Structure formats: C-alpha cells, structure tokens
Amino acid sequence: MKIMRLLRTFEWRVLPILAKGLIGSGFLALLCRQREDRWLERWLPLIQARAMGLAVLEIGCGDGRDTAIIHRAGLKVKAIDISSAMVKRASVRVPSAVFFVQDLRAPFPIDRTGVVISSLSLHYFSWDETLDIIRRIRAVLWPGGILLCRLNSTKDVNFGAKGHAKIDNDFYLVHGTPKHFFDRSLIFKVFSGWKVLHIEEKETHRFILPKTIWEVILEVETK
Ligand SMILES: C[S@@+](CC[C@H](N)C(=O)[O-])C[C@H]1O[C@@H](n2cnc3c(N)ncnc32)[C@H](O)[C@@H]1O
C-alpha cells in the first residue's frame, strides 16, 4: 500500500535531479540529510524571552519534531494537529507536552501565550481561512508576543509549486491536498499589521529533495 502511494504521489519530473544527487552525494549522505531540520534552535533564546512563562502554542505539530526541541529547552508546549496518528507519535516523543487533535480552523485551546509556532502548517487553507487563522493567532498573543512560521515558497517546485491544478493564485491541488505557495509580497500582505522581525527564503533538506521555504518571525505590533 505504502509503495503504491509513493508511486502515485512521486514527482517523476524530479527523477533526474534525484539521480544526480544520488551519484554526487552518495545515498547514505542523502538519507542522513533528511533528518537535519533544526531550524528552531537558533530562535530558542528569543522564544525563551517571549514565552513569558506560558506554554508555547504549536499549530500543526505533526510528529512532534519541533515540540521536542521546545520541550528540551525547558519550555512548556501545547500543540495541535488534525491528525490523531501524528498526535499519537508526537505524544510518544514528548510525553509531557499537551496535545489536542483538532482543526486549526476551530478555536485554539488556550487563552493567551507569548509564542506561537507554525512550521509548514499554514498553507492548507483558502485565503479567507488563512486570514482568519492568522487573526486568531494574533488574538492569543500578548503584546510583544511572536509567531515563528515556515511557509512554502513559490520556488518550491519539488513539492508542488509547479505542475498542479490551480485553485487560485499560488494555490494548487497537490496530490489531492490544497497548498498555498508564498512569495515575499504575499507574506507581507497576509501578515499586514504585524512587525516582521526576520524574513528569509531558504532551502531545507529534511526530505531527500531540497524544499524551498520562507522562515518568518513576526511580532504583534503594540499600538
Ligand atoms: C507538513 S506537516 C508539518 C508538521 C510539523 N510542523 C513539522 O514541521 O514537522 C503539516 C501538519 O499540519 C497538519 N494539518 C493539516 N491540516 C490541518 C488542519 N486543518 N488543522 C490542524 N492541523 C492540520 C498535518 O496533519 C501535518 O501534521
């Protein structure tokens, strides 16, 4: 079953790049690179300063990779994901974090926090739903609170930014899943009213093929 799914969803266009990678870097090295994704580590001092003693809210936590990094830094975490299978894996990884199986489009299970983290989980929604989620993130953050997020880049051609059915501008149906892709101007548009502390477009190597993402740190502007 897993093999059938892999064959169905594999981006065959990238086979030549993959083959070049296999020959150039060696298969073992490529496999190891899948595990390197410690993007949060450099932000831990900032997260610690802004958490204000409250639990960090992580949205779309997946299998708890980032949850574990936050927890190891001595911070409390409350994490949400729609997939009960993912939450099960995350709670095995970080038993003392608090997990919620829920849709991000439903109200968040906390009143206030100083830090929200969203790694590759804000791109599944229509424009209005995306704006509403961002509005609710803003509502739970204290003044001076921050959102750390990673977003699909419009250059992320290995993971759907090209060659898929268009739903709307930079919004495609990628193997049955709707996915938004962002350029710099769209990020400033979607986060209008926020203070951008950091914005960087980069490649990650958590998967075998490089993935192009934006890493963005935003602060709730105090009026
Ligand atoms: C690409 S994964 C990222 C996981 C994790 N943040 C990481 O970087 O390893 C996206 C996650 O968002 C979750 N997700 C997708 N749609 C969601 C929704 N409507 N509500 C909550 N979580 C959702 C998926 O289950 C998945 O675990």
Q: Could you give the distance between the termini?
A: 54 Å
Structural class: alpha/beta
What's the helical proportion of residues? 25-40%
The major pleated sheet works out as: 7 strands, mixed
Beta-strand portion reads: 25-35%
**The CATH topology, please?**
Rossmann fold
Oligomer: single chain
CATH architecture, by name, is 3-Layer(aba) Sandwich
In the predicted model, the low-confidence regions spanning at least 5 consecutive residues are 21-29
Number of strands: 10
One letter per element, helices H and strands E, the order comes to HHHHEHEHEEHEEEEHEE
Strand order of the largest sheet: 3-2-1-4-5-10-9
Number of domain units = 1
Keywords: Methyltransferase, Transferase
Domain Methyltransferase: 56-145
Pfam family, one: Methyltransf_25
InterPro entries: Methyltransf_25, SAM-dependent_MTases_sf
Overview of the structural elements:
- By secondary structure, the protein is an alpha/beta fold.
- It contains eight helices and ten strands.
- α2 crosses α3.
- About 4% of the residues have low confidence.
- The structure holds S-adenosylmethionine (SAM).
- This is Methyltransferase family protein.
- Keywords: Methyltransferase, Transferase.
- One of its GO terms (biological process) is methylation.
